[in-house]
Amino acid sequence: MPGFRLSLGFTIFYLTLIVLIPLSAVFLKTFTLSWEGFWSAVTSARVMASYKLTFGASLLGAFINVIFGGIVAWVLVRYEFPGKRIIDALVDLPFALPTAVAGITLTALYSANGWFGRFLEGTLGFKVAFTPVGVVVALTFIGLPFVVRTVQPVLEDAERELEEAAASLGANALQTFTRVVFPTILPSLMTGFALAFARATGEYGSVIFIAGNMPMVSEITPLFIITKLEQYDYAGATAIAVVMLVVSFIMLLTINLLQAWARGKSGK
Q: A single Pfam family, by name (predicted)?
């Protein structure tokens, strides 16, 4: 490829400038702490509770999006109906909507006097706003487009002839989906899950309003990092950020390895 060395050099320089240097600064600031100080900063009861909520809600939101985002992608690709273009455009709304606006809107909808919250809390006794459930709702909202937009092009490029061949050999609709369609879209579902999870772990704006930010109950880790920064505890904030970065990297690496395995298996 002409210009390969120049392109590769520019790519490495750009990634170093935009990604590696900021991440290195986070680690270098953390190294100013002693091991005891680092361990105390990242394992306090309040921080551990925020880890549990952040990663747990992110995983749950990503799983929900894999299921329902896959259904949305399937409907948009396989069916024609009035208003399809509008629904297709609405999928990208979480991308364009400012996260703070999304958080305020979700809080207004699910609070005790909101459209949905009035029924859920008043009739069913199920509280959403200012609870961990509200965090899951917010993270599901911002992660939906990642799954839909990764699965949709794979479904569009899928060979319909394979499904027709399976049907002609006597496979029913469920067998055709589980043995022909699902293996094809599994790597893209994993990619969408990884992207939704990664986006959710660092989400701040859409969560702080609906979460209520109660320590040990509905306080997310990004908010705790902001609290540390406001207290001028920069080393403590970066220490918590390093833990989130390492855990997220390990989980994303695992998902990518599973994705590569799924692609290799489907290729065989």
A: BPD_transp_1
